[in-house]
Fold these 2 entries.
Entry 1:
Amino acid sequence: MEKTRAAQITAKALRTRKQYLGADSHLPICPYVLCEAMGFDLRFVKINSFEGMYVANQNLILISAERPEGRKRFTCAHEIGHHVLGHGTVIDEILKCGSSNIEEEEADFFASILLMPSSAVKRIMLRTGISTATISSTDAYILSKYFGVSYQSFLLQLYFNLGLISYIKYQELKIRTLPEIRLSISGLKIKGQVLSIGAWWDEKAIELEVGDYIVSEKELLIDGPKIVQPLDDGNDHCYLATKPGITRVFSNGWDCFVKISRYKFHGIYQFKFDEDEE
Amino acid sequence: MSKIEIAKRLRSAREMAGLSQGQAAKRLGLHRPTISEIEAGRRNIKADELAEFANLYGIEISWLTDGTVNETNIDRTILAAARELSAMKDEDIETLINTIKMIKFSGDRDGKN
């Protein structure tokens, strides 16, 4: 992509966040909330063999419910990109990598900037004390979950779009596998996401699916429905998301909302965090 | 319009919206058994109730009443785009197109917040 085009798309992504969410570029955003603010009908559908779709004349965005959470958020941001960049109706298939299509490349770049603007990445690295020279796979995974994207998207953003890490560093981090990273953070062999949080996690809710974990520096108290539960196997400050709903966690001076959805929720976005009713 | 067919479509529309019977009942201010009676085809449903269901599930009311949708709803380019997709399974393309057809085009729906 040409530099001038990249600069144009960057400006459009940042303007979209600011216009609809009032979000400055040093903060992370949720692409689903942005969709809602932009007046889109956002739905997660049980269709396995595609990623997502933007239907221009119906103000509709469909996302496959079957993908991992980070991937779904990136796809959602990508579909918003098709809208903002005026691409018209597009269906996005799986395996977009290596796609030579210019619209796809532009929508991916838009999504990366929308979810991980340069100043937000730099700010959170300062706040967590993680430096680009010494960033580990664990650090990168933790930050990727703060931005709500996949580990690989975050690395690509650090290396390719923002130029914050070297090619050697990128290669070194890229080959690490998710099970080993999740094990090193939580001490558990798990399939769900692990969100490692601390007092630096601010300005955004912790969003989980049932079966995901939170690992915290300090003990968390729960104010609201008991839908996250501490593990009782002696694992310090590790919590499992057990039921859908919205609650709040806190530890001295810090607090945060926790929003939990069903595993692979399909349906209308506005119902995503509804509590179970008997 | 057949009561049992409407009942079946109400159930699939609710499932597609991602709501359990209990959750749908709560949002519509009904008791859960009312929803299960309706979806079993054992209770008559009034026109205004049908409109409320369509509104909550964000689908065309004509799809609930007689299973039809306005074909002009669907952008021809979607069909063309879908058919060109090599990586998508045929049955998934069908599901995708039917889903888009059912969905009501509306900027704002009550019952969602």
Entry 2:
Amino acid sequence: MKPTLHFLKICSMAALFVAPTGIIAQPVKSASVTQQDITLSMNVNNQPVENVLASLGRKAGLNIYFDRNELNSEKLVSIKCKNLPIKDILADMSDQTGLNFEVVSNKLIVSRTENENKAAAKITGIVKDTTGETLVGVSVHIKGTTTGGQTDASGKFSIDAKPGDVLVFTYIGFTTQEITVGSAPVINVTLTSGSKNLQEVVVTALGIKRESKSLTYGVQTISGAQLTNVPDASLVNSLSGKVAGAQITRSSSGVGGSTKVVLRGNKSINGDNNALYVIDGIPMPRNESAQLPNVFGGQDRGDAIENLNPDDVESISVLPGSASAALYGSQGANGVILITTKKGLAGKTTINFSSNTTFDKPFELPKFQNTYGETTVDQSGNPVSFSPQSWGAKLSTPSTFDPSSFYNTGKTYINSLSVQTGTQTNQTYFSFQSTNSTGVIPNNDLNKYNFSVRNSSQFLNNKLTLDVSANYISQNVNNRPFQGFYYNPLVPLYTFPRGVDFNQYKNNFEVYDPVRNLKTQNWPYAESDMATQNPYWIVNRNNNQDRLNRILGTVSLKYTINDWINVQGRIKVDRTNETYEAERYASTIGVLAGDKGSYQYNPTGVTQTYGDVIVNINKALSKKFTLTANVGASIQNNQTQGSNIDGYLLNFANVFSVSNIDYGRFFPTQYADRQQTQSVFGTASLGYDGMVYLDITGRNDWDSSLAFTSQNHFFYPAVGLNVVLTKLFKLPEAVTFAKLRANLTNVGNGASAIPYATNPTYPVSNGTTNAIGAAPFSNLLPEKTRSYEIGLDSRFLNDNLSLTVNVYKSFSKNQIYTIAVSPTTGFSSYYFNGGNLMNKGIEATVGYNAKFGSFTWKPSINFSLNRNKILDVLEYKDPVTGVQTSLPYVNLSTDVFNLRVQKGGSFGDMYANAAEKDANGNYITDANGLPIRSNDFTKIGNYNPSFLAGFQNEFNYKNFHLSFLIDGRFGGQVVSLTQAILDQYGVSAASGQARDNGGVVVNGKKVDAQAYYSTVGGRNAIASEYVYSATNIRLRELVFGYTLPGSFLNNKVKNVGLSVIARNLWMIKDNAPFDPDVALSTTNGFQGLDVFNLPSLRSIGFKISAQF
Amino acid sequence: MKLKYNNIKLRIGLSLAGLALVLSQASCTKDFEKYNTNKNNATDSLLNIDGEGIGTFMIPMQLAIFSTTNFTYQLQENLNGDVFSGFMMSGDPFNGGVNNTNYGLVPSWNTTPFNVGFQNIMANWLQVSRRAPAKYPDFYAIANILKVEGMHRVTDIYGPMPYSQFGKGGFATPYDSQETIYKTFFAELDSSITALNQYIKANPNVNRVKPYDLVYSGNYQQWIKFANSLKLRLAIRIAMVNPTLAKTEGEAAMNDPNGLISSNDDNAFVHISNGVSFTNSLWSITYEYKDINMGAPMECYLKGYKDPRIASYFIPDAKGNYHGIRNGVSINSAQQYAGASLLNFGNTNGATPIQLMAASEVAFLRAEAALRGWNAGGSAMQFYNQGITLSFQHNNVPLGTYLEDATSTEAPFKDLVSTVNDVPAGSPYLSKITVKWDDGVTYQQKLERIITQKWLGLWPDGAEAWAEFRRTNYPVLMPVVVNNSQGTISTTGFIRRLPFSQDEYNSNAAEVQKAVALLGGPDNGGTRLWWDLAVKN
């Protein structure tokens, strides 16, 4: 029994009735002959059946009766005939529309075809694009049903359909096409590409699908293929340069580290500014590992997005504004990255396999000198041994020590296998991916295995859809590199005194100590404050291991009540168990470990459970008005549980066990945090004639982080309007499509970033407890962001040129501040709401399709700029005196520079004790002619770019494919503490050059190089002297590929693709001594800073893919 | 077929049940308060049980006076007072070799004594003061003694500090002059002594503070002795700047019937006890960080006097020699001074109790009091000899003929690395004072003798030794070799204080700026505190 029959049966149960309102034509003359014998000439092409009937009725003098519900005016017919009897014309129309026509006297009665009359037949065909390339994976379904499938590897589809059924062909990046099945068993389709999403159905909030043209906000869609062209172990990194308005920054933590994605500017001063990730409509917890608290060091242990399989991604929609995000709740205030994963396909089983191999080398390294040796005498002329600095004599032969030789060639192997299969009622997707990567730092590796299964099945005559999916991720990372000074092998490596043989420490990083009967670290250059150790000791004997197991399970159940309403319920559980262990062997520097070594054991479990119920309505209210509405409720629970045991070993050296820790001084900690948000929400979109759409959204959140305050819930509305100009006005022919949209949104945000702030309690440790540091925040209010957006989507020249422009402005108020107060208050900090942070900006995307015979070129440019202004920092009332204080600024970090949020300034302003200068810009110097550090803080820069731009190009010629992406970040500043320290140590190229020149010129006078760099450089550098432009332009991605013709392997293995891929191939411009796209960490306070950052990598490799 | 159908039904049924569960959960927010309470922490209501909420806050106070967190202690005291007193010196070229030890003061380090004082001592004292006074006057009295002990060390580093207005006035807390602070200290110690006396009288056999008392295990009598001794220490500190008040307070302390710490049994030391453990930070900095060594003056005095305490304070090298490092020497590599002597902790190592005050110091205080003509209950000589004796006894070394040595003086200094750092015989930076008491010498020579021996006995409390050096200019110390203060601190005039906490300029800016006026000089390391007179008397 074929399910399609079931469906049609249901549909045909609606009784035929003759609607008087359906009379659309009046007789023009009375019938004298049998109406059926009248011959007519017609020439219509793809006209709605309704119009054709009207025309036919006029010509033949027939009154036409039909039920509008059945007529389905969207059905298109084409008739070209000369003097054909009307019954033949009607028969043809019947074939094309599936409708039944009966002429009774002068009445033409239109009714649904009895399904028994017209049996479903197999319709096959090939889908190609305008270049003649077959398209794989095009979704083909019968309109109004769930019956459908996808094109196979050779672009073929096969579907059981009856004449009159409308086949809908959708493919991401192509215009959706509808074709009515006629009598022909073969339908070949050509989809027009380009001009993108406008006719497409896009997945929006909560997984609700909407026609792109009805949206009142901007969406940018990236296909899965665009992500995996140049694969990265973390899929968000592949978005760099491809999305207008996204500022993507990686932490300097190597493979498997976190990535910060900021959409439309930073909105929260103290909270998270990262975009929300949503998978198949369900928000994903960020699970970001703790980021380093200060420059001394810490470790980035990745985030939740990093461990997904990029090959499971069907497409990514980036909703940069908060308008779209209102439905995700507070987490969506920073914009949403919406990931749609792959599903099974009805029809033929397809197996996809791809294998990627890439090799990595450091991309940008500091420049070193190699002509001056280690310091051998101190300032007084006394000999010193083992000085870690290089202010010694000129070497007779330049040092051959090359810090870059420390780096290995990183290797990443990503192998993916996926199977898509299914029947009309049951589709299954399975995938497996392995990622095996060795880092450029010795002993750093990542092994990740992803398994996904997804099954979609339809029951109860297709009224019930059950979608079940499960993912399992196993990831093991050994020796993630540390950021900052501690455990960072780059600090001792880069500063290693020149002229000394590095190999003796490389080959003998440990030597046997007969007294201890132990191999101990061999390194006479240890310095306590940066905890410098032998780089090879660090990578071999300061080990850490991060084992992660994550399971995601989703059950979604959807019941279609009738053709305009359905109810959907979903549950998702996302559970991550992570065990982190660090083993530091005995003779590790005393700052980091005890005499016997030290050990850290940190198991954590994070569970997010999400459930929702949504009623979806999609109804034509009348011929012109349509209504789409979604009303629902959701609940989200976030739970984190774990403990951390970290201490020196007690009695047994190198016995790494929690049972061997000195509990007399190291006290375990435990955490069990829980946060719950309950929400009700509703959205309604009223459309008029496909021309004007009005959206109204409202949401109310109850947030447990607001417990103990006067109100634990908050409401936020959004409204949007969209006008299809091309439908409303007669525009020049060159304009194929134009749409203007605007929206106004409010998004609230609870206080999950500061759990327990409203109810602080006393942590218990070592048999005692301590006074509370942060005063209770009992008048906590949720943060609010109000944003406005106006956008234009347009296409020109037969859809070959497209332009999208968005202009936005947002105000973020009620910011939650943690204000460090004087400890003389009895507290160390207070929380306050306040401030007003404005972001405004422009995003634009221009795309073009050029075709010259079999050569195609698709360039696209994206551009974005964001301006941020701090309108207000904070006005607060002294809790005791009641005195109103207006805070001029707050510091988000205070080390090399203060990241200062200052009224009138903008987010990302860096302040420091700069070198003092006079009115003419000359340095004010001390008696030795050296610059003096000012006691006042002055602004030395801002890390945010003025604008971002990406230029993507795709060339296709026959089976060859070339694409590249050049992107740039313009404006903004970064600071390099690395350079400052390398200068002070006399190992930087600058310090060598200065000695060659006989000193450094300050105000036109030469001063001694060592004296200069000891004053200006070093750990406490005068930061103003180490500010660099963050402008950088690079060839970020390059792919050159060839697809073997199917015939090559007898069509048994298809789409065999071979490509050469490269990332970060060429830094076209960068004036900073490091890659400004890499930040010390992803926290707000440590952006734009280089502290011995792990360099970004140049990756070159190849990819093989095939389909079976 | 049927089986499959059932299976599907089961799946659907389970899903629906799950949804129903979710929905039923969503129906209320009554658990929100539970979710937003950290279940691993103590709450105020839990702290009401057994009176835990009062005593528990006294423990962190005791662990903060000399912070038991090694890196905190390092900045709280080790890289200032411990070095500036000549007790110790670091062989580590911190901060690229420019740091406190050579007067290149590091602002981010020098916030620590202030922050620890307020966050760990004052904040916890506030908890006790809010919970205790009515029903627990004994707890409150002891908390006040701990507060004075902890906070006088803070004011003696910076000068003016917020004290009387602490925790009262919202965000801007005014600074008190050091004079006001000292007067408040005396008043607080007096009220503590009174309260403890009253409590003992009313509850003779009760020592309910014991579970929270790491110093005297609940012996209230000993707390009174400590309070009196502390009062005497503070009185002597202001003996030059305010002789009248000093005499009044000093005599009151010495003549209180409860007495002072007069035997080593009464010493105020923080011990590992009651399930509260810690590691002596100084041990950790010495042996784990390997960041601190013997100071050159310590080497020279101990060697010069052939003082047997040298072996209980320091570890000799293989040849039995001791090597100190002089303040402010140029250090380019941590290896340079690898041969410098390490501190000796005997068998107790990390478990070594933390010295707040010992009997020898009290004896020397009384010696100075007697020298100043106060009613000290004995002569300067008597207390001087007693101080030395108590110190030897405390260090378990035989006194021998030490007290009779009228010839030995401080030995010259020979640097491990460079002759530039040497202090040869005849240098004005070597003291000529001997051990044996001599009533016939000048007042200043007597004072030097007392303070020099007190200095040796104070080991390892560098902060107190530095304060007394600033007050008296004794013992004779060696100036820094390299001075990175950019002219703010005189090399031969020595460092007089640390600048106010940099954090205060951010969070309490108006008040800290007013405090500069109270200080009476620029906010740098060269300005003298209230009790540090330019002309000593």
